[in-house]
């Protein structure tokens, strides 16, 4: 999946995996050694995340059911929690993505399905 911040005309990620089952949401990014630029994880439904057991910081974007950003957390370090009441889903991205794309609360996102080549 590709996620675009249409407000800022910036791609947040071109290789975003979706965690929509209980098990995939439970595991999340725990099995990954790092996140490369353009990669990420959308967890749906979700309004809180943790980085227990992770070895690297991540950027977290909380999004409502209208695909509008309701909260951003830059550089969430390992062994931390973050949540936002009213979030429908969360996007976890490499640390630095939020700053690089100027993403902020109120921005409108667009989700695009990956095209098969």
TrEMBL record:
Signal peptide stretch: none
Matches recorded under InterPro entries: DUF192, Saro_0823-like_sf
Domain of life: Bacteria
Record-linked Gene3D superfamilies: Protein of unknown function DUF192
Name of the protein in its database record: DUF192 domain-containing protein
Species this protein is from: Sporomusa ovata
Organism taxonomic ancestry: Bacteria, Bacillati, Bacillota, Negativicutes, Selenomonadales
């Amino acid at each position: 999946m590709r996620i675009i911040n249409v407000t800022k005309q910036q791609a947040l990620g071109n290789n975003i995996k979706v965690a929509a089952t209980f098990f995939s949401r439970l595991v999340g990014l725990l099995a990954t050694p790092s996140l490369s630029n353009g990669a990420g994880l959308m967890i749906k439904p979700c309004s809180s995340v943790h980085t227990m057991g992770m070895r690297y910081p991540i950027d977290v974007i909380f999004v409502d059911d209208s695909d509008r950003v309701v909260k951003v957390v830059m550089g969430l370090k390992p062994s931390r929690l973050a949540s936002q009441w009213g979030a429908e889903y969360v996007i976890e991205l490499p640390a630095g993505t939020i700053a690089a794309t100027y993403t902020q609360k109120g921005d409108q996102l667009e989700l695009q399905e990956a095209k098969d080549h």
